[in-house]
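hey team, just a heads up i'm posting the complex here instead of the shared drive bc the drive is being weird again. everything in one block, sequence lines first with there labels, then the predicted structure for the whole assembly after. its two chains so it's a bit long, scroll down
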Amino acid sequence: MNDVLVYNVMIKAYGMAKLHEKALSLFKGMKNQGTWPDECTYNSLVQMLSGSDLVDEAQRVLSEMVDSGCKPGCKTFSSLIASYVRLGLLSEAVDVYEEMRKAGVKPNEVVYGSLINGFAESGMVEEAIQYFKTMEEDGVKSNQIVLTSLIKAYSKVGCLEEARRVYDRMKKDTEGGPDVAASNSMLSLCAELGMVSEAETIFNDLREKGTCDVITFATMMYLYKGMGMLDEAIEVAEEMRESGLLNDCVSFNQVMACYAADGQLRECCELFREMLVERKLSLDWGTFKTVFTLLKKGGVPREAVEQLQAAYNEGKPLATSAITATLFSAMGLYAYAMDSCKEITRDEIPLEHYAYNAVIYAYGASGEVDMALKTYMRMQEKGLKPDIVTQAYLVGVYGKAGMVEGVKRVHGWITFGELEANQSLFRAVRDAYVSANRRDLADVVKKEMSIAFEDGQEEEFSSISGEEEEEDDDDESEEDEAF
DNA sequence: GTAGGGTTAG
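-- predicted structure starts here --
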């Protein structure tokens, strides 16, 4: 028969290794062996199970603990309450709180903090305030965390005045004033209500203290972007970069979105490259959402973007490489585009349309006409018929190579209805004539387009880096464009 | 040689 102490140590060890099953079976085993658990065993188990949000098991052990005449500690109740709150099970949390009071254990500021925050998060402000009052009546003194939760509660229901009052109280009552979390909470309320100057005051306070964190910057960007103040949003983005706090995927997404909204496509693409290639961050849907916007704004045909989007949504293994190949090509970063192409073609396996198209586009954009045409041939050998995207890209390759006859051939197909008239294809043909120095023929296409699609229907093109560029009348060379 | 607790955005 082992000592209780030995069991307790082993249970703790299992807990630290997250082997809860083992801990529980050891708990059962010790009782069978005739070693009765003591307070420490129970406290330890409940806290460990609560910490992993295994509330049912924790609850069972807690009940057994009380039944056997042991008195759980404040931390034990507290951990279970916190666990219920994390799971959004507020009424269960309250039950434990009541049980705790009944057992004669006085709740501390952590218990109140959990409850108040839980109610604040679910927008139950009345309840949050009620517990705050009870806490004060109970002689438990509030702290930064509780007051921050209160601000959150008021924010949830848009009570600006009350939130301000709590915030001002923190300035007086707490030493050093509100901490970053509290300020951020207030900041997000300001952002929600579009209160720029009050937000800026708080932001500047944090700057002076040097305590801005990722959330501070994110909230300020969110505010400025929402108010259409893109210059200011970008300034915050720059400041965030310089401060070394731009490190995670979501923050990158947000900063990228600011640049994209401001039309700084190339800068945005650089950030994307940094997060993907240099930092090797894993990308999420938000990243790709911005990338697809970039592609469209960068002049990639709508159908091509949709095709890449579909490949991404279907989880195609080469989707990311195809997307980056297309993006880097569209933004003029050809060396990087070539790297992506190599990823796509490395395994010599037959590809799908989206992948062949991306490779054709990338080679074409980089001026590797032979490789582009070779890829097209390979695609045909594999029995894949060119789709609308392939046609648009191919015509671009012909234009770039000065193969006017090739452009004319596709142009003819459209004119005589052998290829379905489509805006992207028209545009590709027109641009191809331009890059083959046949303005005259480009103008013909332009006229045909205005007939086919009714004048003024054409979407806008934004060019790289957000520089303004008249698309139609400018006689300057457009060689630098993708096509 | 014993006892995992609460705060801030998209």
